[in-house]
Amino acid sequence: QVQLVESGGGLVQAGGSLRLACAASGSIFRISMGWYRQPPGKQREMVATTSTSGTTNYADSVKGRFTISRDYTKNTMYLQMISLQPEDTAVYYCNALKGPETSWGQGTQVTVSS
């Protein structure tokens, strides 16, 4: 099973930017990956996904502000976030789907102050 470790979270003011990273324990070829988040008191929700063919999908709330990408040489997925708003405050998790196996990272906290 792929091991995932997120980094890059933190405290930022509204309008600011952050880049999250998700480092995988092995190759990320032929693995569908994505970012999810869980705001305080709410359920986990999809933020952005990238398929094995490179197709990306974004939640309506982040379109135009967040960009998902991968660096295959570093086995790492990224989430570039700009124009952050207080409603983006959440624990952000990365996810990987490899065949029947699903892996989750431990999460990284993103807090946006108004």
Structure at a glance:
The protein is mostly beta strands.
Shape: globular
What structural class results from the helix and strand content? mainly beta
Our Rg estimate from Cα atoms comes to 13 Å
**Mean pLDDT over all positions:** 96
- How do the helices and strands follow one another from N- to C-terminus? EEEEEEEEEEE
Folded structure, characterized:
With 114 residues, the chain is mainly beta. Helix content is 0%, strand content 54%. The chain has no helices and eleven strands. It has strands at 4-7, 10-13, 18-24, 32-38, 45-50, 56-58, 66-71, 76-81, 90-98, 101-104, 108-113. The model has no long low-confidence stretch (mean pLDDT 96).
Give the key terms.
mainly beta, seven-stranded mixed β-sheet, 0% helix, four-stranded antiparallel β-sheet, single chain, 11 strands, 114 residues
Lay out the secondary structure.
Layout: E1 4-7, E2 10-13, E3 18-24, E4 32-38, E5 45-50, E6 56-58, E7 66-71, E8 76-81, E9 90-98, E10 101-104, E11 108-113
Parallel strand pairs: 2-11
Antiparallel strand pairs: 1-3, 3-8, 4-5, 4-9, 5-6, 7-8, 9-10, 9-11
